[in-house]
Amino acid sequence: MPAPLSTHDLTLSYGTSVIVPQLSFSLKGVQVTSIIGPNGCGKSTLLRALARLRPAASGEVQLYGQALHTLPGKEVARRLAILPQGPVAPEGLSVEELVWFGRHPHQGPFPLRRPEDRAAVAWALNQTGMTVFAGRPLDALSGGQRQRAWIAMSLAQQTEILLLDEPTTYLDLSHQLEVLHLAQRLNREEGKTVVMVLHDLNQAARYSDELVAMRGGEIYAQGRPEDVLTPALLADVFHLKAHILRDPDTGRPHIIPYALTR
Question: Where is the signal peptide (predicted)?
Answer without folding.
Answer: none
